[in-house]
Amino acid sequence: MKIFLIIILGFFCNLYADLVYPENGMELNYTHIPFEWEQESEASKYQLQVAFDINFGHVIIDVEDHSLIHIIRNGIHWEQEYYWRVRGIRSDGFELDWIDTFSFSTGGYDDVMSLNTITIDENNYSEGYNLFGSLLDKKTWIMDLNGEFIWFSDSLSINPLSTFLTNGNMLAIYFTDDNILSYDDKFVVEYSIDKEIVWSSPDSLFAHHDMIVLPNGNYMMLIKEIQDGPIPIGSWTPLFQDLGYIADGILSEFPWEGDRIIEINPQTNEIEWNWNVFDYYDLNDYDTLGGYWHGALNDMMFDWTHCNSLFYDESDSSVYLSSRHLSRITKIGYETKEILWNLGHNMQSGDVDFGHDLCFSFQHDITILDNGNLLFLDNGNLSEYYCGTENQISRVLELSIVDNGSELSSSIDWEYVLPEEYAGTFMGSCRRLPNGNTLINPGALSQGFYGRSFEVNQEGESVWEMSGSTIINRMYRVPDLYPQKFSVIQPDFVWYLPSPTTYLSLGDNCLHYKITNDGHSIQSYQYSFQDNGIWFDDESGIIEIDAGESYELIFSGSVFYEIYPHDISLSVHPLGSPSNEKNVFINAWSTQNNSSGCIDPIACNYDADALTDDCSCIYNCLGDLNLDSSIDIYDMII
Asked: Alpha-carbon distance 109 to 87, whole Å?
């Protein structure tokens, strides 16, 4: 009997609300912290405290919130230990017991870059934080405009390939060893803010340079493709002939490294679409100025196309591909796989349709803007040859493409020419920001092995700058660390075995659920409400909630007496992100106790003694003078 009682008491203890995140004893790799806890019976709001000591003698954060999540963005520092606790507060101001006390700590970060930031025009700085990676150190950071780090990849050896996805994760190149140049020693991954790899490309694919998420949820990425081709006639020919090759420009005898675009289903790892450069590009087109045929003598492989960027345009189901070593951008019809056009430097085949006069070379990071224009970084490695410049010049180009059916043309709608000392020889990125500014990272600078990034306005005036002593692979501006944080509060309940329990009076009843968008931007949510009986109709739908706002879902039904309870549940997830689903459950019992009425304090007929809502609340009191929920003759003789 004594053992049985102990077990029962243990069940009851576990029924109360608990702290959810950060977990007890957790070490975090970021300083913007989302505190989360479970719903407490009778609580109308919550008090969160964070302190340096377990006795909370030195409280550094003391806030109240009506949600179940509160994100702290100031006050938490690196390499510190903290304690946190939460308690509910009833609507009458009565403070409930503290739910629990948890500890957490923040780790350190590697500051290998001698980072320096300059804010020239803070009023025109496009809001957000800067996500970037170091190629040499194989690490990634997020920092604010003042150079303060708020997130660090720590033990995860990655370089970023995206901003935050709709599910709150990110994409990256993952390094398996110290070889930063070989495709064989890296693959692409999707990872969480807590450094958890949630998906990685199969090792056999040798994915490299870029990966994007398609509207159908599949991944599109670049993988290397090797086929034999001829050694063309050039200054390198005798050197290959000395090694025993024929090198006559005709015989396919030497490995060419090209690229294949693949679309892969992350659930099955099955390839559902692919496009091979060897099937569509002409082997007569190859770079002769960048020294890659001489480099092939050492590598025993010719680096032919070196594709480095992808973009999928949902408006016309097309794929854009950047080939660095062909100085070419290709538009591909997704359905047909046919080349719609080639833009850039014309070569021997004559397959490049237009844009020969743009003289860009070795470009990176192609995107299609909202206005339909094409934006990319022209590294300009061959600008002396193609543009006639005295030295290498790097630019950001925004091009308008016109296709009238019979003729293609392009024009420069916007151009930013980087100072000559900031020309980038390899890597780099450029992104158009929400306020119209452009974030530019020229990659590895030709005049010094270090990194530099700029934010410039439409007039080309510098708004913000960053410099560091390492090569920056890509630079993104992210609005926040938590795009999809949200909470769900269900109707008030009492704790009883085996789950939260509520009692509903016989007759009409309404169940109220509050969904709060704690993320940084407007979000659509898919919801599904279910009753395993027939008191309430099952219902599903989509709602949209602004950042920081709440939405109340109300489900009405009619309760009749039953001896067993109903299992009532609500599941909610951000649209397109079912992995972030939240579920709440409640056991509902019918009771003959007539304790129902309008429970909304702002309603005209609010009933302070009502425990459950009978759907009778009135908010337009004009005419209903006696507040009996109807307008009739009795309102005239009150």
From this structure: 33
Q: Which residues pair with 375 in a beta bridge?
A: 367, 398
Angle (CA) 449 454 457, round 5°: 160
In three-state secondary structure terms, 127 is coil
Q: How far apart are CA 44 and CA 575, in angstroms?
A: 28
How far apart are the C-alpha atoms of 39 and 632, rounded to whole Å? 41
Q: What element of type H or E holds 10?
A: helix 2-14
Q: How many residues does the chain have?
A: 638
Q: How many helices (H) and strands (E) in the chain?
A: 5, 47
Radius of gyration of the chain (CA): 31
- Element holding 7 (H helix, E strand): helix 2-14
Residues 301-354 have pLDDT tens digits of 999 999 999 999 999 999 999 999 999 999 999 999 999 999 999 999 999 999
pLDDT band at 601 (very low <50, low <70, confident <90, very high): confident
Distances (CA, A) of 509 to 467, 599, 621: 62, 11, 21
Q: What is the 3-state secondary structure (H, E, C) of 131-164?
A: EEEECCCCEEEEECCCCCEEEECCCCCEEECCCC
DSSP state, 337?
-
Q: What is the distance between the alpha carbons of residues 347 and 289, in angstroms, rounded to a whole number?
A: 12
At 461, the amino acid letter reads E
Tokens of 65: 């919130």
Sign of the Cα torsion 368, 369, 375, 376 reads negative
Mean pLDDT over 29-57 rounds to 96
Task: Evaluate the omega torsion of the peptide bond into residue 498 and state whether it is cis, within 30 degrees of 0.
Answer: yes
Alpha carbon distance 527, 539 (integer Å): 8
Say what the pTM is: 0.88
**Residue 238: is the preceding peptide bond cis (ω within 30°)?**
no
Distances 631 to 598, 618, 623, 624, 625 between C-alpha atoms, Å: 17, 11, 6, 5, 8
